């Protein structure tokens, strides 16, 4: 599991520094990994999404947070329970960047 943790928390933010990888990485985390059957993988995806905020705060604010909000409001419990974690990670990452926007 340690390699998986490193992949999400160290490697993913490094890859996101390259624009050609950033979009696919964000989409994979937001659209697939947050819905994964494994609870630990969903938590790692939430952490990774938060770590990607500094690479593109506009995308995080205009795309990721509305998508997460939509998932939080789902009538299906299994769908709405996990987006709260990445949403909170996004908010903490915005706070760390000092961006008021």
How are the SSEs placed, and which strands pair?
Blueprint: H1 2-16, H2 19-32, H3 39-52, H4 57-72, H5 77-80, H6 84-97
Helix pairs in contact: 1-3, 3-6, 4-6
Task: Walk me through this protein's architecture.
- The chain is mostly helical and 101 residues long.
- It has one domain (2-97).
- 76% of the residues lie in helices and 0% in strands.
- The chain is built from 6 helices and no strands.
- Helix 1 runs parallel beside helix 3 (39-52).
- The protein is globular.
- The mean pLDDT is 82.
Question: Which key features would you list for this structure?
Answer:
globular, 76% helix, mainly alpha, 101 residues
| Sequence of secondary-structure elements | HHHHHH
Strand content: under 5%
Count of DSSP strands: 0
Straight-line N-to-C gap: 36 Å
Overall form: globular
Poorly predicted regions: none
Query: Main beta sheet: strand number and arrangement?
Result: none
Number of helices, where a helix is a run of at least 4 consecutive DSSP H or I residues: 6
Structural class: mainly alpha
Q: What is the count of distinct domains? A: 1
User: Helical proportion?
Assistant: over 70%
**Average pLDDT level:** 82
What gyration radius follows from the Cα positions, in whole Å? Answer: 13 Å
